[in-house]
Structures are given as structure tokens and as C-alpha cells.
Amino acid sequence: MANMAMTESGSYKYPPIQEVVCEIHLLPKNAVGEQVVKSMAKVLLADLPNQEFVPEKTLSIEITMGKAEAMEKVVGTKLVARSIDSRDIVQIGSNSLVVNRLPPYPGWADGLRSRILSRFAQLREIAPISGVAQVSLRYLDRIKVPAERWEWPTWFKVGPPVPAPLEGKDTVFNSHSQYSLGDGLGVAINFGTYPQMPLQTSEILLDIAIGWTGEAGAEDLPSLLDKIHSPHNVIFESFIQDSLRDVFVPIKK
Predict the structure, then answer these.
(1) Where are the domains of the chain?
(2) pLDDT digits (tens, 9 = 90+) for 161-208
(3) CB 161 within 8 A of CB 170
(4) Cβ atoms within 10 A of the Cβ of 124, count?
(5) How many Cβ atoms from other residues are within 10 Å of residue 226's Cβ?
């Protein structure tokens, strides 16, 4: 029955993706100034007309005499540009390009990947960008299951590590894991119930972020995107049971 939830290409007809975020950090020597950020605003105006400029800040924590103090510092101006329906978002700072996508998910190869590369190409037309230092791709899945049939093993291959003798029913569960995949890749996974939501709501968060760190030429971005996207499906599928695929429904904004 699992195949009924998928298209002929193998992707889900109604993927439970709440948001996808791709972050590209430039090499330090390629940091751009406020004028480049403002020029990009004009380039993006036709597609992303809802724009605002916000202070770009860095956060540092100083520990002295057993006391920790957080300090913010304004380092530049960041552009946040949204489409009319707010489903497409582009953020540009002094050393970063961030592309966000809200439901419905347009797919990868001919959808989000193409949009990311297009935005990067637009930025390179304005600024002499030679390379990147970090690239990450984060999928936030909001998975809804029938409340009347709630049992972890029914829907997920992974569940709360609860000792067998413990009586009662779990209501809140959250886990955070980080792994090194080698070759500059790292993955962070958040899995569990939505914060401050009882389990009876039957909404589960599966947040998978894969990032690459190193130094690569700007022309290497397409292969880097494929490199960090490839493990996502394997990780996602390793969490869910076949039964869950058949209850995916469209995500309403």
C-alpha cells in the first residue's frame, strides 16, 4: 500500500514538509557590502516584492568570574525578500544567501535546487564571488497521524527510549542527535512531539539538517547541493513505517 502515497517518480504526492531552508555561506574574502545587498533587492523585486532590511547581528558570549554575558553586535544590513504568497523567501547578508520554501514543496531537481542556483547566480552577477565555505539543507517535516490509532510502533521505526516496566502513556518526547558523515558532512536531527503540544494532537516533528563545511569554488555549488541532499531521503525513510506513508495529507498554510 505504501506505493499509493507516491508518484511515479518515487516522491510523495503530499510530502509532510513544513519548510525547507538552504544556507550558503561565502568565503570570508567574498563578504559583500550593504550596496550589494541593496542591489540584490532590486534584482529580486519582480519575484519577491515584499522586502525589508533588518540589522544583521552576531551573538557572542563572554564568561568572566563565573558569569556569562551575551552580547549582540550589528555587523551589517540583511535583506529579507518574500513572494506575494510568502511561500518563497530569500535572505541576503554580508556573507550568506538563505533560500526558504514553505508548502507546497516544488520538488528537488527541477524545483528547489534550480531556484537556489538561480539566486546564487543572480548574486554572482553583482558581486565577485569565488567560493563558498558552508552549505546546509534543512527539511522540517510536520507529520500528522490519526489520533485514534496512536502508537509509536504503528507509524515510526524510532520512538521514546522508555523502560519496559514504566507504566502509563508518554505525552511528550523530544530528541536531538548529531552525527559526522565524513567528507565535510554533518547531520543534526530533531525528532519528537511539537513543543508544548500534547501527544494527542498527533503531530510529530522530524527536523533533518545536513551541512557541509570546507572550501570550494563557486562553480562547485551544484555538486555540493546534491551531496547534502542525497542523504535526506535515506534518513527520513529510516524513521517511518510503511503505514505512515499512506496517511500523508496536504499541508495547509
Answers:
(1) 2-25+97-114+132-245, 32-94
(2) 766 555 555 567 888 999 999 999 999 999 988 765 555 557 889 999
(3) no
(4) 16
(5) 12
- Tell whether the torsion through CA atoms of 115, 106, 81 and 100 is positive or negative: negative
Which pTM value belongs to this model?
Answer: 0.85
pLDDT tens digits for range 204-228: 899 999 999 999 999 999 999 999 9
Contact 182, 213 (CB under 8 A): no
Measured between alpha carbons, how far is 13 from 107 in angstroms, rounded to an integer? 10
Measure the CA–CA gap between 116 and 107, rounded to whole angstroms. Answer: 12
Nearest to 91 by CA among 120, 126, 63, 69: 120
Residue pointed to by grid coordinates 529579507: 80
* Distance from the Cα of residue 17 to its chain's centroid: 10
Instruction: State how far the Cα of 16 lies from the Cα of 252, in Å rounded to an integer.
Output: 10
- Cα separation, 21 vs 229, in Å, equals 12
Residues 74-97 have pLDDT tens digits of 667 899 999 999 999 999 999 999
Please check whether residue 30 is in contact with residue 94, taking contact to mean a CB–CB distance below 8 angstroms. Answer: no
